């Protein structure tokens, strides 16, 4: 079983959709699980109302994209179970192991006011994985070290106290393009980019998508060719088109003789892919009762799935009744 998460650190964008959500909806295994990792969005300064709204938004987008609701849950709905397991795993983890995490060193180490949670969130991530008994965790290079930590903690707990946890392994997500910022093709499209002009959000209206794509940075070359190293802006547009329509970016390039025509085609393809998702998401967000029902059922299933592991771990470590 595979477990994948998405953090509501901002609005969900086209990169999240083409790079992850679309694949989750179409290529999933029957037991795979997906969750909105809202607790992970609190490790740096955050706005509570915005976090709550974005958590609902991401959940609605996942449902609207076609992921069956019984495969979904919101992380904070399991905060009791995860809090308890995180503590057990913190008591299994050394300070040095946590402090060695590259993401902590890059994002927080030595900075004033850095939240303790920035140091400990990889242990919460281990709890996410181990509670559900996930065998595989599809992650990019930047999260690999965190899955290694989850592996080490599962092994150590099992070896010290008794066999409870499935030892997970990181798997590379299927190869797919890293969608880049339309205004800055050197950077990936990102939820937390301060300037959203180059980021297409899943809930953007068609006219806004057109404007953003028309303003996409290209280059001074003529003719449309797929050359990611020398022409990253155009390559990004072709990869977006391939993500929306299928096919290979290099083959799609042959269809266009100008950047203008390419941009028009990209804008229309993106609009068509996102339209049904935006419409269904808006319906769901207008029906808080339905979203609450999905959340409640997802939380109950996820808690039930993990209960025996948490109870056994508590008992074996010498705590609980
Ligand atoms: N630009 C992207 N192209 C392709 N895939 C992407 N993903 C993120 N950005 C791109 C994939 O989306 C999934 C969920 O992402 P996440 O919530 O873990 O966020 P992230 O990878 O840290 O990047 P974001 O969405 O831009 O957020 P911030 O700005 O907060 O870092 C993952 O499978 C990810 O690979």
From TrEMBL:
Sorted UniProt keywords: Aminoacyl-tRNA synthetase, ATP-binding, Ligase, Nucleotide-binding, Protein biosynthesis
Pfam families: tRNA-synt_1b (PF00579)
MF terms (GO), sorted A to Z: tryptophan-tRNA ligase activity
Enzyme Commission designation: 6.1.1.2
Domain of life: Bacteria
Gene3D superfamilies: HUPs (3.40.50.620), Tyrosyl-Transfer RNA Synthetase (1.10.240.10)
Alphabetical list of InterPro entries matching this protein: aa-tRNA-synth_Ic, Rossmann-like_a/b/a_fold, Trp-tRNA-ligase, Trp-tRNA_synthetase
Entry keyword Protein biosynthesis: yes
SUPFAM superfamilies linked to this entry: Nucleotidylyl transferase
Family the UniProt entry places it in: Belongs to the class-I aminoacyl-tRNA synthetase family.
Protein name: Tryptophan--tRNA ligase
């Amino acid at each position: 079983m595979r477990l994948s998460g998405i953090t509501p650190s901002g609005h969900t964008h086209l990169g999240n959709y083409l790079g992850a959500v679309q694949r989750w909806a179409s290529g999933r295994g029957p037991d795979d699980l997906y969750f909105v990792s809202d607790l992970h969005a609190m490790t740096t300064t955050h706005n509570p109302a915005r976090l709550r709204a974005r958590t609902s938004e991401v959940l609605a987008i996942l449902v609207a994209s076609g992921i069956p609701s019984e495969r979904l849950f919101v992380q904070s709905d399991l905060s009791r179970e995860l809090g308890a397991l995180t503590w057990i795993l913190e008591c299994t983890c050394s300070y040095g192991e946590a402090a060695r995490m590259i993401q902590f060193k890059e994002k927080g180490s030595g900075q004033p006011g850095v939240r303790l949670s920035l140091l400990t969130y990889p242990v919460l991530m281990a709890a996410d994985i181990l509670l559900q008994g996930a065998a595989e965790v599809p992650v990019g290079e930047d999260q690999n070290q965190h899955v290694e930590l989850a592996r080490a903690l599962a092994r150590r707990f099992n070896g010290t106290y008794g066999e409870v946890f499935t030892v997970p392994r990181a798997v590379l997500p299927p190869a797919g393009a890293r969608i880049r910022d339309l205004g800055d093709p050197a950077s990936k499209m990102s939820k937390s980019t301060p300037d959203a002009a180059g980021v297409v959000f899943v809930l953007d209206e068609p006219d806004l998508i057109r404007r953003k794509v028309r303003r996409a940075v290209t280059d001074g070359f003529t003719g449309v060719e797929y050359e990611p190293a020398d022409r990253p802006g155009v390559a990004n547009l072709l990869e977006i088109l391939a993500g929306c329509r299928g096919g290979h970016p290099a083959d799609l390039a042959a269809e266009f003789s100008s950047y203008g025509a390419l941009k028009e085609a990209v804008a229309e393809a993106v609009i068509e892919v996102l339209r049904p998702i935006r419409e269904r998401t808006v319906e769901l967000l207008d029906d808080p009762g339905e979203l609450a029902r999905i959340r409640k059922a997802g939380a109950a299933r996820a808690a039930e799935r993990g209960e025996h592991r948490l109870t056994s771990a508590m008992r074996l470590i010498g705590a609980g009744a």
